[in-house]
Amino acid sequence: MSAAEAITRRTTYRDAVRDGLRQALLRDPRVFLMGEDIGRYGGCFAVTKGLLEEFGEARIRDTPLSESAFVGAGIGAALGGLRPIVEIMTVNFSLLALDQILNTAATLCHMSGGQFPVPLVIRMATGAGRQVAAQHSHSLEGWYSHIPGLRIAAPATIDDAAGMLAAALACRDPVIIFEHMNLYNSQGELTAAAASADLEHAAIRRPGRDVSLITYGASLFKCLTAADQLAMHGIEAEVIDLRVLRPLDAKTVIESVQRTRRAVIVDEGWRSVGIAAEISARVMEQAFYDLDAPVQRVCSVEVPVPYAKHMEEAALPQVAQIVAAVASMFNHGQ
Amino acid sequence: MSAAEAITRRTTYRDAVRDGLRQALLRDPRVFLMGEDIGRYGGCFAVTKGLLEEFGEARIRDTPLSESAFVGAGIGAALGGLRPIVEIMTVNFSLLALDQILNTAATLCHMSGGQFPVPLVIRMATGAGRQVAAQHSHSLEGWYSHIPGLRIAAPATIDDAAGMLAAALACRDPVIIFEHMNLYNSQGELTAAAASADLEHAAIRRPGRDVSLITYGASLFKCLTAADQLAMHGIEAEVIDLRVLRPLDAKTVIESVQRTRRAVIVDEGWRSVGIAAEISARVMEQAFYDLDAPVQRVCSVEVPVPYAKHMEEAALPQVAQIVAAVASMFNHGQ
Amino acid sequence: MTAMPPPVVTREHGLHLLSQMLRIRCFEDRCAELYSAGKIRGFLHLYNGEEAVAVGVMQSLQPVDAIAGTYREHGHALARGIGMRTLMAELLGKEAGCCRGRGGSMHIFDAATRFYGGNAIVGGSLPLAIGLGLAEKLHDRKAIAVCFFGEGAVAEGEFHESMNLAALWSLPVLFVCENNYYAMGTAWARSEVQTSLLAKVAGYCMRGESIDGMDVLAVETVANQLVRDVRAQRTPAFLEARTYRFRAHSMYDPQLYRSKDEVKGWEERGPLIRLTSRLKEAGLMTEDDFQRLQSSANAEVDDAVQFAEQATIEPVEELQRFVYAEETL
Amino acid sequence: MTAMPPPVVTREHGLHLLSQMLRIRCFEDRCAELYSAGKIRGFLHLYNGEEAVAVGVMQSLQPVDAIAGTYREHGHALARGIGMRTLMAELLGKEAGCCRGRGGSMHIFDAATRFYGGNAIVGGSLPLAIGLGLAEKLHDRKAIAVCFFGEGAVAEGEFHESMNLAALWSLPVLFVCENNYYAMGTAWARSEVQTSLLAKVAGYCMRGESIDGMDVLAVETVANQLVRDVRAQRTPAFLEARTYRFRAHSMYDPQLYRSKDEVKGWEERGPLIRLTSRLKEAGLMTEDDFQRLQSSANAEVDDAVQFAEQATIEPVEELQRFVYAEETL
Ligand SMILES: Cc1ncc(C[n+]2csc(CCOP(=O)(O)OP(=O)(O)O)c2C)c(N)n1
Ligand SMILES: Cc1ncc(C[n+]2csc(CCOP(=O)(O)OP(=O)(O)O)c2C)c(N)n1
Ligand SMILES: [Mg+2]
Ligand SMILES: [Mg+2]
């Protein structure tokens, strides 16, 4: 069933992503998948399970452990007229391919004077929270969004999980889609809206008048929970899902902050020099005179994420901290 | 002549860096240098010229083009009790070694529970302005400063060029020293202060009461020029040289902004999700109520840096923009 | 696999090797249980089936030697002499763990035994080993560095760069490739066109040997020669140990990529069965001996689990300790 | 170097090859002058001495084939048929340049001739060529991808990963290693322990040939066979061309790492001298012919310089164009 025809139905984020991939493969013969263990193994997170059987080895390509080469090969294949969807198993391994991503994929269109756009989609799992420790818990999507020439998407909802891929394939730029590991099992409704998922706009997931909670990815659900708790105290939080970290939809953010006059940014990435800093700076520049209180950030503590459960929890942003940050603004503001 | 004994003398940034390296090699037999073309060739920027002759092949080690392996070898050598100074020719090639830097060097001490600090120094040339185009003009030092566990230094002055290395070697953490390519030929006084260069503090390079210009590296000199021009219009700018981008000396920055009530951050890095955003966010959090105007950023335009001279100039922050940004604050504030 | 005359082994040494392998097997099986019980979390990669490699190689190493490995390193840690209690405490995320519970299964580190991990990036520890070897060389010490890695790492650029550096600079590094024929679900022949590792090694002019990694005596013998040469001649060497992992890649793996028969075939040639029957056939060990070793391994694991369960967790206030080193040099 | 009987060449084709090499030589020499005059800026890497490689290999390629190269790519661009005017305009940073003046010397790109650069990261274009080959394979087209790179790239991990992928997936890619024996100041033997490239290539089960890269006829002959096979059999191949750069690495290089005598020795065996005397000795070319080619090359360069000097620069308002592609798919 294509996203376009979808009648609302309950599904998981994992299946929604798979559905998006299937549709893309069915729709366009130039689309193929490439990555480690996406075929025989069925995908490290079982996202690509069954695709090898359906589409065959030519289009579902298991790669050796050679991140730099197969990401670079994705760039070349895109230049050669294909529409590669490259999976880097997790963001933690993407550093090995960063030269290809930054120095080639992001740069080629501009430096060739527009001759060579790179219509490449890269998917990676991201995030912490599964006790997989320092080298397997990175949240670098905000960091990646420093790089001009890339588009950075972070689907949080089922509709976006299913629909953003089509938007990524519809543009000719390198798009990186970050899927938070903890979302794969999440359930929700897949609706017709998936078909119109774009790579342009942030979404207001919960309207509110008192404070803007600005976030993306798995942290969206922490913010929604925090908003519920705040509502019990009479504070109505507006929750904004950025959806796309580059280019940033500053308009939606700024308009929200202008209405609510307060903002807290919630990001699982490390605090310093992250996307939360960027949003704070944008609000500074574009809505300073509208603010009733300084913008705050609730981010990961700046440590390599530890294994032990209590330590990992302490390292990551939690609902209680979001609530506390908001509460402190009202205390201060009054 | 060691930095400690130095009588003030005129020298170049290049010679100051070399002097720092020589002193380190003379002082500590565990120190050695490793990198591409640092020996026979004399260093891509002639920084290491003569060191091979003086210290021999064992300690001045030319490497093959294998950035990941020789940076990783630096980590291993540090663990094995040596004090490696690894040169990555320019930051543009460092992406190839980023996995080793982020996943190992920055992480090891914490994830081993303090057992394995990594006393490694990495030097790289950085920056644009020489018409070397998109792949050779990165300014990623602000971006690197996202990573916990690293110390990021950006010497702008002759004293820091000579002295920061000793501070880097005196700590047991991985330190990356970014040397702006355009500074190597710059001339200035090497003074006794070089011996007390630390990795802790920002420096006020020009005091002023009206606005804080916050910067580092080669942009320092643009800010000083801008400050001179502003002074002619009666605006006294305080110029802060961050010196160290991680950990950030927020105290010096915040205190300055509290005095001047206005701030402009000048950074040759791309604007979004850069160090300028971080400083703006810190000011937001810690000095919001002291501000007379929103903090502004003067950064590189978010494009791969083009080759043509006029286009390159347009991509990089220039003195006129700094002056204009400051001027606009006074217009608005009045 | 390769037919070689059974190396001479004394009863004492034979029992020692067997007990080392049994300890590992027993430890790993218990880990699997603790994982099902939710006491061990995160990723867990077990070493069942590959015990002969770590145990065989470690026999020739000295305390001064440095070791680097992968996320599948419990066996190496135990064979190296890291205490089972501190290891189990680490897996349970306790402060008494070798890394204070911060590393978990994939990040075992121990300064006392020069055990440098524990690396969850495939290929990531190879450059590290180069540097450890370089330190020995520049210090003019007699130690060597040993690096264990899976055959999956061979496709990574870091393998290539590290092999060249080690050979070019004549570093005392022993590369031990644990070829268990799969990298997650990717069979060796589906990841490399040249499946002879020794042919690859020739591209770096490095001495290499390939052995039956299910035969601990063979591993020990060949590793011993290589270690001796690396130590004496200060040049690197390469050892391929052909082996097999009996369990899933990690605890999440449905193993769609290999048949039960294939696994069974390897199990029948497993390192424990092999050594046990060899020692028995040679009259060096009785069934009683075997049972004694088995129970002693069990008891050690019991004790380690008990210790780990009772141990306390690191205070959360310490979260930011050790991001930077505490003393300066 | 290798002694092979002079391949048969017609007067017409011989003069064609010589004129192509002369155009490149003449272009490069003029670039050096323009650099001294401050008209070309940034990094400039000249191809003097290596002309036979690009010219020899390009003879067998078809317009549908895809090419990737390095920062030392003027020669390849010219031999591929990119107009000298647009090339020179690029070096002068003009909008009429093939990349609107944005790329400069290290980043020549041309969609019309499938010339994919122009890459300033050593080894960076190898994975790109793999992908270009993969596209031909999956599209089931008959084109091939050709990747030129210096021997310095061989130490990079990307070389290793790309060679394996090409062989494993049977991709129609020709790897052309321009072994000019130096990577900046690092001599080949000081960067690799295995200095036989063909021995390395064996590690990937790939067909390889090594030729005298100063002999354009030899390059052409061998490249022709390899290109034919890559095209027909859809498998990769490797060509080492032993050559030498006559000039500095880039314009900043004092060349402390090699002797004047060494340079002189290679110059005497240079590709232009070699082909010139061969054609003359075979009675296929007169001194007049040579002079005519020479002046025609000069005239073409004069014209290109004049064109470039008069060309306009891209309006600065366009700075942010093409960060993202202008149309969607
Ligand atoms: C650079 C990198 N890419 C991918 C992964 C995910 N991954 C973890 S283990 C593994 C397979 C490694 O196989 P091998 O090296 O043969 O070791 P084995 O697990 O068989 O011991 C993969 C792909 C990783 N950890 N690091
Ligand atoms: C990854 C990377 N590291 C370092 C450099 C700096 N660098 C530019 S050219 C060069 C030498 C390359 O030599 P080779 O590949 O033999 O090509 P040649 O210049 O001889 O044609 C180096 C080290 C670079 N451009 N990219
Ligand atoms: Mg394996
Ligand atoms: Mg070369």
Structure description:
The complex is a heterotetramer, with 2 copies of chain A (about 325 residues) and 2 copies of chain C (about 325 residues). By secondary structure, chain A is an alpha/beta fold. Helix content of chain A is about 35%, strand content about 20%. Chain A has helices at about 15-25, 50-55, 65-80, 100-105, 110, 140-145, 160-170, 220-230, 250-260, 275-285, 310-315, 320-334, and strands at about 10, 30-35, 60, 85-90, 120-125, 150-155, 175-180, 185-190, 205, 210-215, 235-240, 245, 265-270, 295-300. Chain A has a 7-stranded mixed sheet with strand order 3-2-4-5-7-6-12, sandwiched between helices. Chain A has a 5-stranded mixed sheet with strand order 9-11-10-13-14, with helices on both faces. In chain A, helix 10 (about 275-285) links the parallel strand 13 (about 265-270) and strand 14 (about 295-300). In chain A, helix 9 crosses helix 10 (about 275-285). Chain A is globular, with a radius of gyration of 20 Å. The mean pLDDT of chain A is about 95. With about 325 residues, chain C is an alpha/beta fold. Helix content of chain C is about 45%, strand content about 10%. Chain C has helices spanning about 10-35, 50-60, 75-80, 85-90, 125-140, 155-170, 195-200, 215-235, 260-270, 270-280, 285-310, and strands at about 65-70, 145-150, 175-180, 180-185, 185, 205-210, 235-240. In chain C, the strands form 2 sheets. In chain C, strands 1-2-3-7-6 form a 5-stranded parallel sheet, sandwiched between helices. In chain C, strands 4-5 form a two-stranded antiparallel ribbon. In chain C, helix 1 crosses helix 3, helix 1 packs antiparallel against helix 10 (about 270-280) and helix 2 (about 50-60) packs across helix 8 (about 215-235). The longest helix of chain C is centred in the first third of the chain and has 26 residues, at about 10-35. Chain C is globular, with a radius of gyration of 19 Å. Bound molecules: thiamine diphosphate (2 copies) and magnesium ion (2 copies). One magnesium ion binds near residues 150, 151, 152 and 182 of chain D.
